Amino acid sequence: MWLLRLRWSLRDARARWIQIVGIAFTIAIGIGTYAGLTSVTQWRLASIDESLELTNMYDLRATVSAGDDVPAGTLAQLASGIDGIDEYSERLVTDTQVETVVDGDELLVHGRVVGIEMTAGGPSVNGVEVIEGDGLPPPGAATPQVLLERNFAAFHDLPTSGHVTVGGDVGVDYVGHAVSPEYFLIVEGNGSLGKSNLAVMFAPLSVAQDIAGRPGAVNDLVLTLEPGADAAAVSQQLTDAAASLDGTLLEVITRDETPSYTGLVGAPEIDQNIYNVIALLLFVGAAFAALNFSARMVEAQRREIGASMALGETPRSIAIRPLLIGLQIGILGVIIGIGVGFVVASQTASVVQQIFGLPVFEKPFQGAIYARAATIGFLVPMLSVFWPVLRAIRVRPVEAIRSGHLASRGGGLSPIISRLPLPGRSLERMPFRNLMRAPRRTFLTLLTFTISLAILFSMVGLSSTFTATFDGGDKELLGGEPERFMVRLDSLYPSDSPQVQGVITDPTVQLGEAALILGASVGADPSAGTDGAGDDSAGELTQLDLAVRFVDFGSDVWTPTASQGELSRGQPGIVLADKAARDFGVGVGDHVVVTHPELANGVFSFSTDSVPVTAIHPHPLRINAYMDLSGASDWGFGGLANVVTGVPADRSSLNDVKRALFGTGTGVALVQGLGESFQSVQDSLDQSAGVYILTRIFVIILVLLIAFNTANINVDERARDHATMFAYGVPVRRVVANLSVEGLLLGVAAVVLGGLFGYALLLWMALFLMPTAIPEVGMLVSVRWVEMVVYFALALIAIAVAPVFPGRKLKQMFIPGKLRVME
Predict the structure, then answer these.
(1) Closest CA to 620 of 658, 591, 656, 579
(2) Partners of 147 in the β-ladder
């Protein structure tokens, strides 16, 4: 008996193999997407842990205040006298400018030389792992030799060895590519420096000292703690010990306060949330597609089921035959899904390896993940088949056996639509009537289309949202000048000093203005009734470290835009980014608590004040805050500047400005275009574009599969209807056209619903999920409607054209056989 049932199911499979394969592929996309992307998440987490362990990343990093240094051995001596410190290593870290040639074009970017002890295999803390090349360069070579950071080298496809110019006039040979834990992910300068425009070089300490012109100096200490040591206590002891020597100021941060580390370890979890949503929607779409198919298949076998019941066969044995079809779909979907998973995992892993410069990236087969995805994928068609089978075997045999022309009772919504004044004759009205006479089937098909298009909408919308956020930030900072730049000085200088005026009056510079940027800790003012919860992902935001820029609010060259409030020269108060204001839960007129540096009689200290919020600016980075230049005097910095902004003079480029200003001994530390404020995020998105494209391809394939399946099922299910039309002389092309119109009606409805659902999904990802992944950025939700219209138009064309493919069945139909009625 089992063999007979198996033969029946195989016969059913041969009769409907196109639909079975289509549904299996639909399920396979869900299985493969979830298993592949989730496998990559596990690979990332394991590889991050192994890479950090291999390189022994610091627990604390102590940096001498900007521009200063101490004799080598000083910081090590401090660390040796503090309990709780395990290992430590001194470094000299200096920023510079790097120039090289890439594909015949000059490349002039910000550089950083990290001087470390390279004897005995390199530093014990924050090790340097050579990815390409012969190894760590020895000191004492005729030309300084360094290792080039792998992310920068890979982004620009630089050879394993080559030559660069540092600081404008120092020739340096790089002899390999390497990585270090601080630079597994490049997030520097509040996101303005990424792998495309930050060239880090690892050099022997003596070589770094020679390049920087600081012989025998260090300015950085990285260390690890013993198990159970109190990081805060060790940090305080380091700061106090340095101050007690000669007044040296140390800035100490923990590993968790390092932007590259937090981005590295936090990204996998956020990405997995997006993967889960996409996979869930794909599974739901596959489930409804399978349910739609199985319901129609069982309906087609109604008379056979009724005959079996009339012959006394038990309902359980009757249900086995259609359930075997679900079993075939499930097995085929699992097999194909595993292959799809390998493709997705391989493509995504290559993108992840480009974004994160990990020295270790293991890719073991994730059997548990694939088993979980396969189990879900297997159960989806089985459960989808079970429900219509259960309905079928509960019908009385006499009703099930009744022929189709007698069983048809004009149910559904067809009586309602028959009263509507639809234009045209019977054939023109037929697509509308076909949709309304089986509302459950129409709804299931519409739902599968809607889910697919919603995923497509959200993926395309997320990409355009990032672009709009970047463009909005650039527009705010550039003020209509695409090459506006900022010159960071290596210290504080009077605004009329040669260092500041030398930049402003340089022949390559025009519209130069001196300004001041100071770091400050800003928090909601409890006395003002704000709780500080805001929109922060943790819901407990109390303070933010902001970069407060003092500018002349009456300037004709550039001032921040006030989206709320007003700006006026001499106005007291602070201008917050919209994202920061929302995170603090404050608005114009409210107060915030600002802890800021204060300069009195040449001595730095810190002071805390309650400051009113005078305006809100629209730049997406919440770290940017502004105060009028006159307010610098209240902090003791009146008449001082540490940055100069401007634009290149006529016939000069930004590279000309960089060459003219950097390395001239005028106190210039960095020259950077203001249009690079999102460079680190933009670099990662550029390299991860393949994953978004792959997702879109899968969604488009899913739409094609659903359209193809729907068309085939309609042709099979309505064979008697079509035979009747052919008997009355209706041509095949007219029947196909009606099927296309029917699909197009469904497609238009799916576009509307998919757009609405997709936009809601986009809002959730951009406004709730992304702030957890990138809390510093306030996303500007945007949709490129032209691109979206193109995608949706392609989907509608696919849906409308799908009935053409089963048209061959209609041409070869044996009309008398389809019209025969046996009682």
Answers:
(1) 579
(2) 202
Torsion of CA 16, 22, 25, 26, to 10 degrees: -120
- C-alpha 139 chain-centroid distance: 41
CA 619/CA 581 separation, integer angstroms = 12
Q: State how far the alpha carbon of 227 is from the alpha carbons of 74, 136, 221, 230, 231, in Å.
A: 25, 30, 19, 9, 10
Using the structure block, give the residue that is written with the tokens 């300069």: 599
Q: Is 424 left (phi over 0), alpha (psi -120 to 50) or beta?
A: left
Residue 664 to residue 92: CA distance in whole angstroms: 21
pTM of the model: 0.76
What value does the CA radius of gyration of the chain take, rounded to a whole number of Å?
Answer: 34
* Residue 224, pLDDT score: 94
- Rounded distance, CA 20 to CA 385, Å? 12
Q: In terms of Cα–Cα distance, which of 673, 581, 666 is closest to 618? A: 581
pLDDT digits (tens, 9 = 90+) for 396-428: 777 766 655 444 444 555 565 556 666 667 777
Q: Which pLDDT value is given to residue 537?
A: 42
From first CA to last CA, the distance across the chain in angstroms is 28
How is residue 800 written in tokens?
Answer: 């409308």
Angstrom distance (rounded) from CA 623 to CA 612: 17
Bridge partners of 489, per DSSP, are 668
- Hey, how many other C-beta atoms are within 10 angstroms of the C-beta on 138? 12
Strand partners, 64: 250
- Candidates 541, 547, 539; CA nearest to 521 is 547
Strands 640-648 and 250-254: unpaired
What backbone torsions phi and psi does residue 421 show, to the nearest 5 degrees? -80, 70
Cα separation of 51 and 42, whole Å? 14
How far apart are alpha carbons 255 and 224 in whole angstroms? 10
> Rounded to whole angstroms, how far apart are CA atoms 650 and 652?
5
- Structure-token match 């210290």, residue found: 491
Residue 585's Cβ-count burial label (10 Å; 0-12, 13-18, 19+) is middle
Q: Write the single-letter amino acid at 350.
A: S
* Cβ 238 vs Cβ 80: under 8 Å: no
Specify the length of the chain in residues.
Answer: 823
Tokens read off for 592: 């915030």
Q: Which amino acid is at 320?
A: I
Query: Which of 244, 223, 277 lies closest to 84, judged by CA?
Result: 223
Pairing of strands 591-600, 640-648: unpaired
Closest CA to 274 of 764, 781, 700: 764
pLDDT averages per 10-residue partition of the chain, 823 residues: 66 73 83 88 91 93 84 91 92 90 84 86 87 78 87 90 86 92 79 78 92 90 93 91 78 87 80 78 74 70 76 78 81 91 87 83 91 88 79 74 51 56 72 78 83 87 85 85 88 91 92 91 71 44 82 91 91 92 91 90 84 93 91 92 92 87 73 73 64 75 80 79 86 88 90 93 85 79 90 88 83 78 49
Burial grade of 467 (CB within 10 A; 0-12, 13-18, 19 or more): middle
| Element containing residue 99 per DSSP (H, E) | strand 85-102
Structure tokens of 34? 């979830």
Range list of H helices, 16-149: 17-55, 74-80
767: nearest Cα among 583, 522, 623: 583
Give the pLDDT score at 1: 56
DSSP string, 320-353: HHHHHHHHHHHHHHHHHHHHHHHHHHHHHHHHHH
d(CA 682, CA 21): 40
In angstroms, the CA 41 to CA 250 distance is 37
Where are the extended beta strands (E) located within 103-209? 105-116, 129-133, 145-149, 162-166, 170-179, 198-204
